[in-house]
């Protein structure tokens, strides 16, 4: 504390002015000056006695240290700010402080601690339904899991981040998420999926008019995907396009990665002379950057090139250099981790000592207030016990009632499913004895609709929230039931496939109508499509196109034009069902019949 503040009694206007001055320095980027003044405020017991003053002072100290990359000191003050926010029950500030701590620990290489703080931030963000924060935190956690080598968990969190970002219309974060998903697939060796998400990211970034460097980086990733998939011409096109942009912008990192990619491409094509030239350029760039991970890639490519030229002795020398480099990287990372952990432990001890000193001072100030509140709190405690006992008994009765209602609901679902199944069986028996073709067709339609409803009833048996049901899982179960039904009635030669490229969560009402459409289309195909078709096939797929969900049902049969009877009551029913749920229906004859249902979901 300064001499000025030691000499004078606490003067609120003066400390308010000091805070305003410190905040202005922080906003102007004078972080050292801001740190000095904020520390002066933190040392003033009467100023920090007010919880909000304490919270914002420590938060600003954490931010200032973060900006000068003193992440250990930043973490100490963000911890203090977080403690104050928790006492104040300020949810928005709690989320911010946990997020800030997660970033500090990530920069310190303490990934487990970073994940722990991110998880706490996520819980509070979900509590107040702040979807933007949820998307950001899910993305941060995904990056942490990737750093820990847990690619599957990283992939799961990236998917959630993209889904929430798309829900709130944050296209920039969706594009960023697509890139991250592509990285996950690339690490898993699933290069076709990596290519798909990189292309989605590039398309969206073009719509958003992203800067040239961002577009170039994504193009380079696409080129590397094509390279892994042995599509050498496509790889060349994308790598060269990105390389031209990186060269124009003089982006050394992008150029280094690009030269490595061009060298690998040249090796694949057998142009070893060009491969040497590209590797020489890559080596120059990598040395400028000093990034050892790029140097590891360079050595691996150089070894491959020398082996293709039959220069095995030189290749062996490079293998030794690569081994030394990888060992050096490992040692440096291990040493860095040890140093960070040691520094963190020392800082934690310092923090504990500081907290004890400060808590003692604050305790003295708080004790004066606490004495006056004791009687009031005692009376309040007695009243709370009485109220708590009353609510305990009430809650127990409500819980018992709720449990009974749930059991009755499940019994009703089960009974409904059994009833629908019996009706379906009766309709099938009746239709077999019907001589009239039109009546038999009507019964088949009703049976198909009942089968769809029964499937949905069984599928949602254990689902409490009927406004959020997995469309993809329902389709798989429905088609399986349709296959069993038609196989038992003499159509066992038909092959069925269900392809879910992107699932969707929809309410039961929409799923019922979609299920009835699928059932009707499949029934029509089984009845009319496969006369004189050697290998009959029915395919159901679910994918997304922009903001629309595409449900497609197709066969490889004779098509509607060849069999006019197929464009009749069944297709008319499908059109009416699509119109009811405000979906667009198109029907095409391309090597069979293809129904496309475009849903706004």
Radius of gyration: 33 Å
Strand portion, in percent?
5-15%
- Class of secondary structure makeup: alpha+beta
SSE order, as H and E? Answer: HHHHHHHHHHHHHHHHHHHEHEEHEEHEE
The percent range for helix content is over 70%
Transmembrane segments: 373-394
Catalytic activity: ATP + protein L-histidine = ADP + protein N-phospho-L-histidine
EC number: 2.7.13.3
Protein name: histidine kinase
Can you tell me about this structure?
There is one protein chain. With 601 residues, this protein is of the alpha+beta class. The protein has helices at 3-7, 12-27, 31-42, 45-49, 51-67, 71-88, 91-107, 111-127, 131-147, 151-168, 171-187, 191-207, 212-228, 232-249, 252-269, 272-289, 292-308, 312-432, 437-459, 471-487, 508-529, 569-580, and strands at 469-470, 495-500, 505-506, 537-545, 548-555, 584-589, 593-600. Among the domains are: 211-315, Tetratricopeptide repeat domain (Serine Threonine Protein Phosphatase 5, Tetratricopeptide repeat, Alpha Horseshoe); 463-600, Heat Shock Protein 90, CATH 3.30.565.10. It is built from 22 helices and 7 strands. Helix 2 (12-27) packs antiparallel against helix 3. It starts with a helix and ends with a strand.
